[in-house]
C-alpha cells in the first residue's frame, strides 16, 4: 500500500490532470458562425490579437464606438506589443514580479477569446507550466452566487469539483492563478473600502468579500490574478491592487486578413471579402473588432460567392440587415420538414428581443437575468424560441445549475441594431427620426450614436424591403429622406460639439448622402490646403473636412491649423483631426483660453497619439496654461515637445507647468517658453525639473523674456523704427521725425547716394526691423490713392525701372499693395489678389517671424475702444538676410508709421 506521504505527493498532480482535461474539453471549441460552422476548434480559427501596455488613471469616458475608431488608426509601431501568454512576464524596465494584471478592451474586441486561448494553451501543456492550477471564474457566473455564504475553498470546489480533494494548504503551497473575466458584467458591490479583511480561505462570507480580499492580496497573496474589463468599468479595481495594465486593441490590418483567410476556406473568396471591406471605411474600421469580422465573413462569404443575390453591403445597417435575414433563413431551413417557424412568431420573437435590447442599451447592461426578461415581458418558458430564431445574437446559458444567464452576443453592435429595429417598428411620429437625432445629440456619453446610425439606415426603403418579414406595411416608412438629410446638415451647421458632428456624418453615410464630404474633397483635389485656406467654408464644410481627415487611411503626421483658417472656431470644428495627429502646429492662430480647455481633453485621451504641440504666439495667458497643465498631469498624456513661445505666461503659469512635470515626469523632453515673462522664480521652478533625475525634461528655453512680452496680441513684438532719407526717391518727402513719407509733385533736392531709389517712389527703413529677436510687428496708415507696404532685403536693386527694384517684383522683397479698389500681395512678381477691406479702412499691420519663416499682413480696425486685426495673407519662406521695412507711395498719397501704446 502507498504511504500517506506518497498519496499526498501525487494528489495535486492528479487534480491538475483532471482540471486540465476538463478545461481542455471546455475551451477547445468556439462557437463560430452558422450553417455548418456552429462550432470550430479554437486552435484552427484563432488569430493572434494585438495587445499592448494599457494606460492607468482616469476612466476613458469616450463611447466604445469612438474608442474603436481611435484604436483602428493607431500604428502598431507606436506601442509595445505583448503576447497573450506573456502578460505576467515583467517588462524590461519592471523590476518587481507581477501578481495582478488588468486587461481592458471594448466589447467584442476579443478579451474572452484571449482568456479561452490562454487557458487552452496551459491545459494542453504548451505554456505557463510553472502554474499548477488555473481557476477561471467569470463574473457573469459569480453574479449567480451573490446571495450565498461560502469560503474560498467552497467556491472553488463548487466551480471545479475535480479539485475537491485538495486541502487548504495546497492552495498556498503551489502557484495558482485566478482569471476573472468580464468585470463590466459584475453585479457584486466590490466594496474595497468597507468590506472586512479576510485571510482564512476556509472562513465563510459573501462572494463579494472573497473577491475584494483576493484582489487586495489578503487571501492567497502568492496567487496570480488576471482581470478583464471594458474600459468604463476598469476603475472598480483600485490602482494600487494592479501591477500591470494591458489593452486588447483588436485586429491590425494583417490580422484581419489572416482571420478571413482562416475563416473562409476559399482563399480567392477570402481576398474578395477583404478587398470589399477595404473599400468601405466604416466597415474597415469596425472590422478592428473580431466579432464584426465574423459577422462580415458570415454575410460576404455567401453574397460574394453568389449563394445570395442583392446589393453588397457597404454600410453598417446594410451589413446587419443582411446578417439578421441570414439568421432567419438559416433557422427556416433548419426546421423545414419538421416544424416551420411561423413568420409571425419570428417577427414577435425578434421585436421582443429588440425591446429587451433597447431597454438594456439605456441601462448599459451587457448581460441580464430572468428578472430582466420578465420586466421586458418575455416569457421565460419561451426563451428557447428567441435564442433559436437568433442563435448568434441572443444566447441562453446554464451556469452551475444555479440559474440562467442571458446575453446578446456583443450588445455593443448586434444588440444595438435590434434595439434600433424595435424602436423603428414602434415609432408612429412622422418626425421621429429628427427627434432621435436630437436625443442622440443630447447624450453626453455618446451611447446612442451607433443606435442613431442604425435607425437612420433602417429608414431607407432598400433596407425596409429586405426586412419585410419583420416590418408590416403599416410600420414601414414611406417618405423622402431628403428632409432627414436636410435636418442633419442643419444640426451639423449648428452643433458646437465636433465629436457629435463626426457621428452625424456617419449618419449621412447610412443615408447614402455624401454631398458635404464631396464638396470638401473637390477643394482638396483642385488645390489642396491652399485652396481651402482661400475658400470661405461654412461650419458644416469645416466639419466635413474634419470627417475626411479623421477617416483617411493615411496617418495624420502633422495637423497645421494655419493651412486652413487660423481661428478658434475653425480649431474647434477640426478638433477631431487634432486628436489623431502626432504633431499639432497651432502657432499664431488667434487661440485663447477656450482652446486650452479643449486641448486638456485631447491630452487626457487614453489613446492619445499627440507627441508634439506648438501653441506659440497665442494669447493663452496663465489661465490657459493652467488648463493645459491639467492635461499634462494626466497619466495618458505622452506629449514630448511643448512650444509656448510668446503666450503671455508669467511666474503663475510656470508654477502650473512645474506641478504638471512633477505629476507626470515621464514624457515631456522639450519645453519652449521664450518670449514670455517667467521671472526669476518661474525660471527657478522649471530649472529644478531639469535637475530632477525622475523627470525626462532635457531642454528648457526661457530666453527673450520681460514685461513687454505680456502685452496682448502681436503688440508684444512691436518695433519702433524710422525711415532712411538716403534711400528715399526724390518724389518723396519725409517728415514727423522721418516717420511719415509723402509723394510730391516737385522733386526734392536730395544728394546722390548709392542706396537711393532713382525711378520708383520708394523708401526703406533706417533700422532692420527684426532686431535681435527675429520677430517684429509694426503698423502703417496710408492716405490718398494708395501705397505699397513691404519688407525687403537691403540687397534690393535701387537704380532703374526693372522688377529687380520694385517691392515684390523679385526674390528680395515681399509686398502688400493697397488702394480703395483692390488689395494684393506680391513676391518674385507672383501676385495674389485679396478681398478688399471695407471703405475707410487704411491701416495695415505687418508681422514677421524669422525663426518660423512667416510674414503676415493684417487689416487693422481701430476706434476708441478696440484694436482689431483681420488676417489678410501669410508668406511662408526661409529668410536668409536681415529685413527692412519699405514703402511705395502712389501719387498724391502718403504713408505714416503708427505708434502703439
TrEMBL record:
<dbReference type="Pfam" id="PF14484">
    <property type="entry name" value="FISNA"/>
</dbReference>
<dbReference type="Pfam" id="PF13516">
    <property type="entry name" value="LRR_6"/>
</dbReference>
<dbReference type="Pfam" id="PF17779">
    <property type="entry name" value="WHD_NOD2"/>
</dbReference>
<dbReference type="Pfam" id="PF17776">
    <property type="entry name" value="NLRC4_HD2"/>
</dbReference>
<dbReference type="Pfam" id="PF00622">
    <property type="entry name" value="SPRY"/>
</dbReference>
<protein>
    <recommendedName>
        <fullName>B30.2/SPRY domain-containing protein</fullName>
    </recommendedName>
</protein>
<dbReference type="InterPro" id="IPR051261">
    <property type="entry name" value="NLR"/>
</dbReference>
<dbReference type="Pfam" id="PF13765">
    <property type="entry name" value="PRY"/>
</dbReference>
<dbReference type="Pfam" id="PF05729">
    <property type="entry name" value="NACHT"/>
</dbReference>
<keyword id="KW-0547">Nucleotide-binding</keyword>
<dbReference type="InterPro" id="IPR006574">
    <property type="entry name" value="PRY"/>
</dbReference>
<dbReference type="GO" id="GO:0005737">
    <property type="term" value="C:cytoplasm"/>
</dbReference>
<dbReference type="InterPro" id="IPR027417">
    <property type="entry name" value="P-loop_NTPase"/>
</dbReference>
<dbReference type="InterPro" id="IPR032675">
    <property type="entry name" value="LRR_dom_sf"/>
</dbReference>
<dbReference type="InterPro" id="IPR041075">
    <property type="entry name" value="NOD1/2_WH"/>
</dbReference>
<dbReference type="InterPro" id="IPR029495">
    <property type="entry name" value="NACHT-assoc"/>
</dbReference>
<dbReference type="InterPro" id="IPR003877">
    <property type="entry name" value="SPRY_dom"/>
</dbReference>
<dbReference type="InterPro" id="IPR041267">
    <property type="entry name" value="NLRP_HD2"/>
</dbReference>
<keyword id="KW-0067">ATP-binding</keyword>
<dbReference type="GO" id="GO:0005524">
    <property type="term" value="F:ATP binding"/>
</dbReference>
<feature type="domain" description="B30.2/SPRY">
    <location>
        <begin position="701"/>
        <end position="901"/>
    </location>
</feature>
<feature type="domain" description="NACHT">
    <location>
        <begin position="99"/>
        <end position="233"/>
    </location>
</feature>
<dbReference type="InterPro" id="IPR013320">
    <property type="entry name" value="ConA-like_dom_sf"/>
</dbReference>
<dbReference type="InterPro" id="IPR043136">
    <property type="entry name" value="B30.2/SPRY_sf"/>
</dbReference>
<dbReference type="InterPro" id="IPR001611">
    <property type="entry name" value="Leu-rich_rpt"/>
</dbReference>
<keyword id="KW-0677">Repeat</keyword>
<keyword id="KW-0433">Leucine-rich repeat</keyword>
<keyword id="KW-0963">Cytoplasm</keyword>
<dbReference type="InterPro" id="IPR003879">
    <property type="entry name" value="Butyrophylin_SPRY"/>
</dbReference>
<dbReference type="InterPro" id="IPR007111">
    <property type="entry name" value="NACHT_NTPase"/>
</dbReference>
<dbReference type="InterPro" id="IPR001870">
    <property type="entry name" value="B30.2/SPRY"/>
</dbReference>
